[in-house]
Design brief:
The chain has about 90 residues and is mainly alpha-helical. About 65% of the residues lie in helices and about 0% in strands.
Length: about 90
């Protein structure tokens, strides 16, 4: 169990180093995306439109995945989930 905690702590530490942009990338980013991503960042209005559409799709998917995870609404006794749960 101690090894598992050490491995989890190491993985979390490793993920944080990759999660944030390096100093060189921070200087190339616009203020709104600074320190979140690597590279030069959005270069035109079309890039911002694409980012906005992707953000809306991501939030929409996240909300509905939580909704159906918490309260799926399937009441049929012959549903496939009941064969797994029983």
């Amino acid at each position: 169990m101690k090894n598992l905690k050490k491995i989890c702590a190491f993985l979390l530490l490793l993920m944080t180093t990759f999660a944030f942009a390096c100093e060189a990338c921070k200087l190339q980013q616009p203020k709104i995306t600074q320190s979140f991503t690597h590279g030069t960042g959005p270069e035109s209005k079309w890039d911002w439109l694409i980012i906005g559409i992707i953000a809306v799709i991501t939030v929409y998917t996240f909300v509905f995945s939580l909704k159906y995870l918490v309260k799926p609404g399937e009441k049929d006794r012959n549903h496939i989930k009941n064969s797994i749960l029983n």
